[in-house]
Write a structure and sequence with these properties.
Order of helices and strands: HHHHH
CATH topology of one domain: 10k-s Protein, Hypothetical Protein A, Chain A
Keywords: Signal
InterPro entries: Rap1a
Largest sheet: none
Organism: Sphingobium rhizovicinum
Protein name: Rap1a/Tai family immunity protein
Shape: elongated
């Protein structure tokens, strides 16, 4: 009897693992990113979380820049900005915008970098006046 109960529990767990889960906009939320980026320096997993934070942010920024390059645009982030500056900028943004941390982490990295280093606005093309010759 007990064996059958364990079997039923295992079957139920397996079935629930196969059920579709709610999809999110990203794998990582802003809350998740904020948690690893602000990990306790005395914690046993501090270095792991620090590398996770830096890796996520630098990967997100690389993805943004790749998208810009594919669209024949330059990066808006100056070339001399360090990964640590990107981290500090992102953490400061997440700290000041706790409501937005429910959104995807990548959207929050994007918002933080755009706020710190805004892209120049494109100027609309001006139409050349065509001169009409008098006849």
């Amino acid at each position: 009897m007990l064996r059958r109960t364990y079997y039923n529990i295992a079957l139920a767990l397996a079935a629930s693992a196969l059920a579709p889960a709610t999809a999110h906009a990203g794998f990582y939320s802003g809350d998740d990113l904020y948690a690893v980026c602000t990990a306790d320096k005395e914690g046993k997993d501090y270095f792991e979380k620090s590398y996770e934070c830096l890796g996520y942010i630098s990967g997100a920024v690389d993805a943004f820049n790749t998208t810009r390059e594919a669209n024949k645009l330059k990066s808006c982030i100056p070339g001399d900005v360090t990964i640590n500056q990107l981290r500090n900028t992102t953490v400061a943004y997440l700290s000041k915008n706790p409501i937005d941390r429910k959104k995807s982490a990548s959207s929050q990295v994007f918002a933080a970098t755009r706020k710190a280093w805004p892209c120049p606005t494109a100027k609309p093309a001006t139409k050349k006046k065509t001169s009409r010759k008098k006849r």
